[in-house]
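We read letters as residues; the integers encode the fold. Take this protein.
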Amino acid sequence: MITIALAGKPNAGKSTFYKAATMSDVDVANYPFTTIDANRGVSYVRTECPCLERDERCGDEACRDGKRYVPIELIDVAGLVPGAHEGKGLGNQFLDALTNADVIVNVVDASGGTNEEGEPVEVGSHDPIEDVNFVEEEMDLWLAGIVDRNWESIERKSRSPDFDLDDALADMLTGFGATEAEVAASLRSLDYPEDPIQWTDEHREALARDVRARTKPIVLVANKADVAPEENVARMRETGKMVIPATADGELALRKGAEAGLIDYDPGDEDFEIAGDVSDAQRKGLERIREVMAEYGGTGVQEALDRAVYDLLDHVTAFPVQNETRWTDAKGNVLPDAFLLPRGSTPRDLAYAVHSDIGDGYLHAVDARSKRRISDAYELEEGDVIKIVSTAK
């Protein structure tokens, strides 16, 4: 399962984002370090379900009238403060919790209502642009420190006649989630001495920054956009980074309202309908949320998760079935499963995602739409419905 980690300084709204995205019961408070131990929960990315092409919608609870929700893991970790890579605040604990994440969602207080330490200040008095590169810089310097502390071991290994720098660095960086291919790609993009003994601090830091960028891409969430000065979100977008304006408070209110039957709303919708009896105060609050949604196309919470997985990680959703005519499994369930796979994945990769035995016994695959056998080298596309033929049952 793909893992997304929520990062940012204290009190930026990470825990509210997490609670809205998972509907888990976590502490949400207006003071730094509300989160001490990392919260882990299940959230979802949203895509279009292939059942829209059929006369009847599938009965899977993860599909809401053609809106398909595919599970991911979401982590909410302790907030960063300046110098986190040196262990300040809960820095080491925070950064350690990120090592297994596939992508980072950096939650920034776009309102400027919290200072660099995460302490509440007057809205607009802190420049959120200062927080845009904050997580990225702390992660880069933290990884550079790890590389630096382990470099003596690399130097010792380099004296061996069968030394291979790619392998040595991959061994060192495995704990950070870097693969051999990613380490090799980083080395190809950098200029460095062949002899590790001649590497400088600048060489090691350049390696750390490149590896971090490849293994932990970052989506920037401009949270509290509902109360942020208009120019703040615009200036954040001008940085050239992927910026998603959001109101985590608004999303949490909508999800609670939908759960109580007061509104009709599915995560990621651009609007909602009031379906129950609400008070004047509730109606006023909902209308404020609607105004923000109209401006930004939604609350931004679902969009941030979707963009992280489908855009930054470049994944696609594939739907394995046993019956290519009815699009069902052995029990007659229509489109029961959905798997997220890196773009470029093949039917055999999908088979292994279903189960290792299915992958080991893979024979061939059939496109359920065309009912035709497809090449083993075929690259899966978003929304593919695939029958896997395997010797395994």
About this structure: Residues 3-38+77-139+217-309 form a domain with the Rossmann fold fold (CATH 3.40.50.300). The mean pLDDT is 90. The CA atoms of residues 29 and 368 lie 49 Å apart.
